[in-house]
Design a protein that fits this description.
- With about 210 residues, the protein is α+β, with helices and mostly antiparallel strands.
- It is built from two helices and ten strands; from the N terminus they run αββββββββββα.
- The C terminus is likely disordered.
Length: about 210
């Protein structure tokens, strides 16, 4: 009768020892992977807002308008009507309205429209405006050259101001199968109160004092 092979007798024990040695290494790898995921998720959460905003500006998603330096040199003969809408958040003591209900213009032609805002409170208030257009598909072709919405606006108690917006409709809207039949666009603004009022007003006071 042959004696048992000592190597065969020890092999189960050796395999068990090997598995035990591998566990800490696997746990370490899993830990590093999870830590990397956490860091990546935190980075994405901080980047989400600016990335989303950039995405909207580039694609016109959700009716986000575009910015341009100048209108095309030549406008189309096709006409389009732009209507104007104004809204104010509940915590902002302003009256805000368009100075005109609508403007009909040639596609590619630059136009200037005005909104009017009044501070109905007894203190200075700084507001900031969000904006979009409907139908949303028109956002890619609605270009602003200058707009009050690009900066925060501070109104003194009882002050009324005219706020201009210079814009044009990109002629490429006529070659897009999804938007070529659009005949009306509504430009809508909503003003919100700037939360950090003191800092904004201090900056304005310093700027006025330096004049």
């Amino acid at each position: 009768m042959s004696s048992p092979d000592p190597h065969s007798a020890n092999s189960p024990q050796q395999a068990s020892d090997a598995r035990l040695q591998q566990k800490p290494a696997r746990h370490g790898l899993v830990g590093l992977t999870l830590a990397g995921l956490v860091v990546s998720m935190l980075g994405l959460s901080y980047a989400a807002v600016p990335l989303y905003k950039m995405f909207c500006q580039v694609t016109g998603y959700a009716g986000t308008t575009q910015r341009a330096k100048a209108a095309p040199l030549k406008a189309s003969k096709e006409l389009i009507t732009v209507r104007f809408d104004a809204n104010v958040s509940r915590d902002l003591d302003w009256q805000f309205k368009p100075a005109q209900r609508s403007i009909t213009l040639k596609i590619g032609e630059e136009k200037l429209a005005f909104y009017e805002a009044t501070n109905t409170s007894d203190k200075p208030i700084t507001g900031t405006a969000t904006f979009n257009v409907t139908p949303a598909i028109a956002g890619s072709y609605f270009n602003k050259i200058a707009c009050f919405c690009f900066t925060e606006q501070t109104l003194e108690p009882g002050e009324t101001v005219q706020m201009p917006v210079s814009f044009f409709i990109d002629p490429d809207i006529l070659t897009d199968s999804d938007s070529k039949d659009v005949k009306e666009i509504t430009l809508s603004y909503t003003f919100f109160v700037v939360k950090n009022q003191k800092t904004t007003q201090i900056k304005k006071s310093n700027a006025n004092g330096s004049l």
